Amino acid sequence: MTADTSPTGPPSPRRTRLTPERAAELHEAVIDLLCEVGYEGLTMDAVAARTRSSKATLYRQWKGKPQLVASALRHHKPIKVADIDTGTLRGDLLALSAVADPARMEQDMALMRGLGHAVHTNPDLNRALREELIEPETAEMRRLLQRAVDRGELAPDTPAVEFVTHMMLGAFVVRPLIEDRPADPDYLTRFVEAALLPALGL
């Protein structure tokens, strides 16, 4: 008869799925704290205290602070590129512009200030943002543009195609820096009509 060599300690904790409402509450708390204290000042303790949860719960859902912050930013987006398909490239780009809410843009300016230094100096945060937010949205933008090519709207060798994501992101980021005002829907619509569409030959 062989000895029982199975482990006698407690089983490893399983990652339990949060309800959408609870996840949204946690993400909202992270966004608020980022605006208030910046990335460096945000702690898992602070998130746990504000949401009346335990740090163990947070670490079961996310590996650490960089992953939690990246997840919160992804869910903070008012719309995902994957959700947009109006049937024309012009309509798709204008739809992206129309979702910019002025109040939300003010909050996003505070978020950029809170994240700015850390994005460039914290490799874990940089990696988490790329994996959770930047790479998925960039891939969806490529698919959006490919649909326009497939419909015959856009020539596949249009030089500006590879810069569309950069230009759209730049429109959101640069206006607050230059004019100290958020990139509201009117500004973004004018940007798309006057700069982006002509660059694409449309």
UniProtKB/TrEMBL annotation:
Gene3D superfamilies membership = Homeodomain-like, Tetracycline Repressor, domain 2
Q: Does the keyword Transmembrane apply?
A: no
- Taxonomically, what lineage is the organism? Bacteria, Bacillati, Actinomycetota, Actinomycetes, Kitasatosporales
SUPFAM superfamilies documented for this protein: Homeodomain-like (SSF46689), Tetracyclin repressor-like, C-terminal domain (SSF48498)
Where's DNA bound on this chain?
43-62
GO molecular-function terms, A-Z: DNA-binding transcription factor activity; transcription cis-regulatory region binding
What InterPro entries does the annotation carry? Answer: Homeodomain-like_sf, HTH-type_TetR-like_transc_reg, HTH_TetR, Tet_transcr_reg_TetR-rel_C_sf, TetR_C
Q: Where is the HTH tetR-type domain?
A: 20-80
Q: What is this protein called?
A: TetR family transcriptional regulator
Task: State one Pfam family annotation.
Answer: TetR_C_11
Task: Name the keywords, alphabetized.
Answer: DNA-binding, Transcription, Transcription regulation
PROSITE patterns, per the entry:
HTH_TETR_2
